Amino acid sequence: MLTVSRTVCFSAAHRLHSPELTDEQNCAVFGKCATPGGHGHNYALTVSVTGPHDLKTGMIVNVTLLHEVLLREVVNELDHRDLNTDVPFLRGVVTTMENVALVLAHRLEEPLAAIGVRLVRLDLAESERNKVTLEHA
Amino acid sequence: MLTVSRTVCFSAAHRLHSPELTDEQNCAVFGKCATPGGHGHNYALTVSVTGPHDLKTGMIVNVTLLHEVLLREVVNELDHRDLNTDVPFLRGVVTTMENVALVLAHRLEEPLAAIGVRLVRLDLAESERNKVTLEHA
Amino acid sequence: MLTVSRTVCFSAAHRLHSPELTDEQNCAVFGKCATPGGHGHNYALTVSVTGPHDLKTGMIVNVTLLHEVLLREVVNELDHRDLNTDVPFLRGVVTTMENVALVLAHRLEEPLAAIGVRLVRLDLAESERNKVTLEHA
Amino acid sequence: MLTVSRTVCFSAAHRLHSPELTDEQNCAVFGKCATPGGHGHNYALTVSVTGPHDLKTGMIVNVTLLHEVLLREVVNELDHRDLNTDVPFLRGVVTTMENVALVLAHRLEEPLAAIGVRLVRLDLAESERNKVTLEHA
Amino acid sequence: MLTVSRTVCFSAAHRLHSPELTDEQNCAVFGKCATPGGHGHNYALTVSVTGPHDLKTGMIVNVTLLHEVLLREVVNELDHRDLNTDVPFLRGVVTTMENVALVLAHRLEEPLAAIGVRLVRLDLAESERNKVTLEHA
Amino acid sequence: MLTVSRTVCFSAAHRLHSPELTDEQNCAVFGKCATPGGHGHNYALTVSVTGPHDLKTGMIVNVTLLHEVLLREVVNELDHRDLNTDVPFLRGVVTTMENVALVLAHRLEEPLAAIGVRLVRLDLAESERNKVTLEHA
């Protein structure tokens, strides 16, 4: 299988805090990630897609189109925002890497179909050492 | 499964242009990648291989041998070349990442077999943000 | 001149907003960096110091000691914090890279003297592409 | 499938030398990696785990807990050590990347189960260009 | 002294060839860099500037403005171009890193003055291992 | 001033231990870096040189020549070696970054003069976070 991957970055604030936990539990579970003022990261999102290999153009997808989808659906919505308060489609979501990755994968489904590809893998890193990966069977 | 990966780099010029498209179509599809003078990249190729784990040496493959194959078959042929005009085995190929990856995977098949391993995965990146991945079932 | 450099990272939220400007002016000057909810970064701080070269140990400074100073004075104070609201020694400071660098250089002066070195250069990066550098004559 | 990955680094010496080979064979097989004095690397270990997605916390695993396991089981044991002579659980092992990866995967099995996750993938890099990957079916 | 640095990238083709040398001399001096078809790189340009520190905004320069200058004067002119043939202000210049750096520094002088800063240092890298640096006294 | 920089890497073992200190003092000063078996790093050496700018070739120095000097004088001597025991010109030197940088700068003086340039700056990093820099006035 052949996939094409594109990476975009965005800088955002967030805070780990679950409304289903008491303040004490939030502290115990999330530690310094629960500090009320929040903290932030330079996030890197890599989206890997596949689809039919167009023999005329030699491409599965035009990376420029893929980039435009990621700018419109992700960067323009999350960059220089507070993930907990400023992003309509993250409202009510505990902004762990796991949850943000799942929400973004869902959000990208249709726009990726519209340019003729489907999501195979999504990597969301909040630093060079912490990452989640979502793989579709 | 255990795989061994080795990365090599090469600097090459290329231009996206399909002989099956009109000039107008080439411009529409490939945008600035179709500029007649071409452009270029520092490409990074990572080859991941597997094979029997030799218990005496503790190795699946001697990375030095793997590196020699990649130097001979890839770097010596593509580094400081124009992929569209200077590489015999890319003649007639639209030099998208997808096509170059497929051609390189095919080209490496026998030399990798000759050192006792088979290709499991090939990553070809034309920048830190654009990449294709070819995975063998 | 011989200098020793040590890099530490911290993840923090911040927002660019000057109390001496109207809301309109803040928006005009800082653009998306002024979004009320704030945003954040993985900051990288590199501190370069010099001092007498101890011929017995071969060192200008023990990097472990230097690291401890940076952990105590910088990382423990800024990591997983909101720079605008949670850090006593940044209170009232517009949290541009320039200002944060100046404040940190001042804050590190004495602790560095205490381990026998002086600050020659301080690099503060808020991303791989944005950085300030403070050099002492 | 959703996985969480954490990377840790350690600096260690090692030497490739198999007791089942003669000195001559060791030289022939391992080349400069067999130099008696040994050499060393800044190793990077990335561990990818999965498990049930806790809907209250939004996490598969608390990265802090995962990090503590890696510090205790790997970094504290291997960092600033000679892999051939100083690490009890590597005694008698030819310290190729392949073997070290297999030993570490085995060693991490129980501690990872104890924090509720299982190992899906382990990447061990001895440099930016050389890596092994162990994937569990 | 306090400087602000911004990095931009561009992918371009080039070829080292001096009209003042014979073909033989060009080959002898430039080796594989003189291949007629040319080759290419992902270039990284870092511009470091200084100026008065505005106490109201806390900034020496708004990085967004600095970025716009670099996009307009450098990236839009060089990205996805052949430096030898497609760039009016490089016509007749042997496109070594040294020469390109000098031309870019000269070209940026006025636009940087127009946003209130002056160039202190310019780094131009054609790969992670090759770089030139121009420093102004 | 215009400088050209070239980076090379080498993997080596070393151990911090001063013959002028007792075992106890060595432990106190160097901590885990004094472990008898030693440890190791992937070192990165960046050499920055200047010289007359040749207007015919557009170069201060041919990077290929500079690279050959670094291979011959540094990489071939230090790569896959134990810096404490295997390198004649480091015998008796406590192998701190400071000392190794000073020895390498001295060693490179003549070979760099032979290709028409002089050393302006030398950076020796033993990891991404630890570095020494030697600057010539």
Question: What would you note in describing this structure?
Answer:
The structure is a homohexamer of 137-residue chains. With 137 residues, chain A is α+β, with helices and mostly antiparallel strands. Chain A has one domain: Tetrahydropterin Synthase, Chain A. The first copy, chain A, is built from 3 helices and 5 strands. In chain A, α2 (63-78) packs across α3 (97-114). The longest helix of chain A is centred in the C-terminal third of the chain and has 18 residues, at 97-114. The first copy, chain A, starts with a strand and ends with a strand. The A-C interface holds A 9, 11-14, 32-33, 35, 37-42, 79-82, 84-86, 126-128 and C 9, 11-14, 32-33, 35, 37-42, 79-82, 84-86, 126-128.
Number of helices of chain A: 3
Q: Report the largest inter-chain contact.
A: A-C, 24 and 24 residues
Please tell me the total number of domains of chain A. Answer: 1
- The helix content of chain A, as a percent range, equals 25-40%
Order of strands in the sheet with the most strands of chain A?
A: 3-1-2-4-5
Number of strands of chain A: 5
SS-derived structural category of chain A: alpha+beta
Distance between the termini of chain A: 12 Å
Oligomer: homohexamer
Low-confidence stretches of chain A: none
CATH class of chain A: Alpha Beta
C-alpha-based Rg of chain A, rounded: 16 Å
Largest sheet of chain A: 5 strands, mixed
Based on Cα principal axes, name the global outline of chain A.
elongated
CATH architecture annotation name of chain A: 2-Layer Sandwich
Strand content of chain A: 25-35%
The CATH topology annotation of chain A reads as: Tetrahydropterin Synthase, Chain A
| Relevant CATH superfamily of chain A | 6-pyruvoyl tetrahydropterin synthase/QueD
The whole-number mean of residue pLDDT values of chain A reads 96
H/E element sequence of chain A? EHEHEHEE
